[in-house]
TrEMBL record:
InterPro entries: FAM65_N, RIPOR3. Residues 1-294 form the FAM65 N-terminal domain. It comes from Sitta europaea. It comes from the Eukaryota. This is RIPR3 protein. Belongs to the RIPOR family.
Length: 294
């Protein structure tokens, strides 16, 4: 089965929401269907949760959010120190300007703290449903090996429903967690090919993340500089998909495939821009340089 998680208006998503409301754990969470990004609204949710991948993304996301929190806390401490010095020196205009900056940073810190607590809450609920599903699956296997009776068949049917409900709930929480992943701003920095790149050569780079696509064309100029028709693209992170990068060389009406690679986004959840150098060819004779800002 599949359904769009982004709209949450289908019959299946209403069933999941109803199931969530029955659970005491998620009733305390007060989960609401998250507003989805428009770029994802054509996607389909496959009912196949991947707990190990979700754990990797959660740990990277939490680490990145904590880095942001520490950086802004350090900024707040610095501004607070200047604020005290300025108050003693009675420079009112500068004092009030610092006061505005401090209030702004304090608001952002509170937003970050809420964001972190929400992500932790979602992941905790996800782990609970994962353990419930594993328990129901193990019991279902045990009952399937026992003698077939009316009671065992009824138990198997109930366990099957429990597994299905936990699976749907996990997928719902994955969708809710995905909305909290932020954005990746990907910048094109150019190709590196040493002797492989010659003036006049034209290339096409195709970047895909799930259903999100970025196609751009570039040309090697006579001074060895490069011009590209686009320089930046925003991608919405995905729990299950990797970046797929395909580079082709344009030769008149013909195209020659240079290489296809995949790139995991797990390291992109960082406060600092990440410089990415990807080997497009097996021998690394042509590389693609990207910069990712989260």
């Amino acid at each position: 089965r599949s359904c769009s998680f982004t709209g949450f208006g289908t019959v299946q998503s209403r069933k999941v929401a109803k199931s969530l409301s029955r659970s005491s754990v998620r009733s305390r969470m007060a989960l609401k269907p998250p507003k989805a990004y428009s770029s994802l609204q054509k996607g389909a949710l496959i009912w196949d949760p991947k707990p190990l991948q979700v754990k990797r993304i959660f740990e990277a996301l939490k680490k990145g959010l904590n880095e942001h929190l520490e950086a802004h806390q350090a900024e707040l401490d610095y501004l607070s120190g200047r604020h005290k010095d300025t108050k003693r020196n009675s420079r009112l205009a500068f004092y009030y300007d610092l006061d505005k900056q401090i209030r702004s940073v304090e608001r952002y810190i509170r937003k970050l703290e809420f964001h972190i607590s929400k992500v932790e809450e979602l992941y905790e609920a996800y782990c609970i449903q994962c353990r419930l599903r594993d328990g129901a699956t193990n019991m279902k296997q045990a009952f399937s090996l026992s003698p077939a009776t009316k009671a065992s068949r009824e138990s198997l049917l109930e366990l099957y429903r429990n597994v299905q409900e936990c699976t749907e709930d996990m997928c719902f929480i994955e969708g809710a967690l995905e909305v909290h992943l932020g954005e990746f701003h990907v910048k094109m920095k150019g190709l590196v090919g040493f002797a492989r790149l010659c003036p006049g050569d034209q290339y096409e780079v195709f970047v895909r993340l799930g259903r999100q696509k970025w196609r751009l064309k570039g040309k090697i100029e006579t001074d060895d500089s490069q011009t590209w028709d686009e320089e930046e693209k925003i991608f919405i992170p995905n729990l299950h998909e990797k970046f797929e990068i395909k580079v082709t060389e344009l030769r008149g009406l013909a195209t020659v495939l240079v290489g296809v690679v995949t790139c995991d986004s797990i390291s992109f959840f960082s406060t600092k821009p990440q410089a990415i150098v990807v080997d497009i060819t097996e021998l690394g004779t042509i590389k693609l340089q990207l910069e990712v800002l989260w």
